[in-house]
User: Fold this.
Amino acid sequence: MMKKIIFSLLVFFSVNSQAGVWDNIKKGVSDAGEAISDGAKSLTEETPPDQIRAEIDAMEKETVANLLGLSASAKDQFNSSYGYAVFDTRKFSFLITTEYGPGVAVNRSNGKRIYMKMASGGVNVGLGGEFYQVVFLFENEAAFNQFVNDGHQVGSEAAATAGDDSARTEVKFVNGIAMYKLNSKGLKLTLDITGTKFWKDEDLN
Assistant:
């Protein structure tokens, strides 16, 4: 799969004229995204749904426990929220940035779990990878249902000011949603999920 992704990206370097630069970038992004999607689908097909759900549930529980232990304000928001969603995210950059991962949304009033997916992609200059979790807290039923049922696409950068500065700053609900990002070092100060799409996982629900 990785060879296919790298091959798609190298299409960029075969450009013979300035006029074709953007078309080649877009094709490289599209082909790389399809390669990642095909690989993820193959892994899902080989793993029993019950096992996938159990792994997502374990990730969700650990992430929520970490968040509530790191931020008193997040704990207060969680306790007053209608529901929440947690996603385990993989972000890679090699001329393009690709971000994807599984997750689950939980209705706190009845405990119902809705398994979901997330993905995004774009052109970038850089090389590297990042592993982290994203937590959404929903202030009310309307915000939760819109996220779960209609899908949610973030069109601008969301800055979550917590982490090391949590004693001095708090994440606020915006349009009924508060967002947090965690990695192995704790809470992060910024969360950029521009253009990220979230939707139900038909194979797990």
